[in-house]
Amino acid sequence: MYRVIFIREYEDEGESYNAKESEYAASIAAAAYAIYSLEETRAEFERRMVESFREDPSSKRTSFRDQETPLEIPDFRGLSRRSSSRVGNNDVGGGPISRSSTKPIEIISGPRPSVSVTIMGNNQADVWERARLAKINKWYEKMNGKIIEWENDKKKSAHLDMEKRKAEIERLKRINLSHYQNKINRIEDITKGAKKQLEEKKKSEEIYAKQKARKIRTTGRVPVKCFCFEY
Length: 231
Prior knowledge:
- The structure is a single chain.
- This protein has a domain of 110 residues.
- The longest helix is centred in the C-terminal third of the chain and has 104 residues.
- Strands 1-2 form a two-stranded antiparallel ribbon.
- It is mostly helical.
- It is built from 4 helices and 2 strands; from the N terminus they run βαααβα.
- InterPro entries: Remorin_C (IPR005516).
- Belongs to the remorin family.
- Pfam families: Remorin_C.
- It comes from Saponaria officinalis.
């Protein structure tokens, strides 16, 4: 990644710098720029790491060494010497300090990431994969437990319903059997009563018939009245 920094020099009326002060200022600027370049390189590296994790690791095997442009730290010693000589000439000549034009300087910053970055990325991917699989297994066990619990509850409820229906059927069966037995007993009682009355009627008719027969034998006359039986 290329960075372009514009160095501007402004005229400060009533104040001048000597060569030593100019060199000190250039050194401070170089140190500040080195820190800035390091921070920019670190931010760019983290961004690339995040983007690489979002992609399919099997389809992208290239390392950061192939993706990034070699980065170098510029040498500011020449810049400080030019600035010092320019300030010195202005002091010697005694003329006014002219404002210099803005000059873009092309900078290549940041260290080159090593192969260990790819290994670190793979390790992080493995850690993430194991954590994700553990989470999936935990979710699976939880849902499977709920399914088994639901199955057991439904089976238990169905068994209780079956037992209730079975008990109800047994109760109705006992009631039906009781009704049947009561009917049979009543029929038998009626039959016994009818048979008893029939026997009594038979005996009564037999006694009456024997009495009439004795009377006929005594008188020799047959009574006009006939005995009719309903069959």
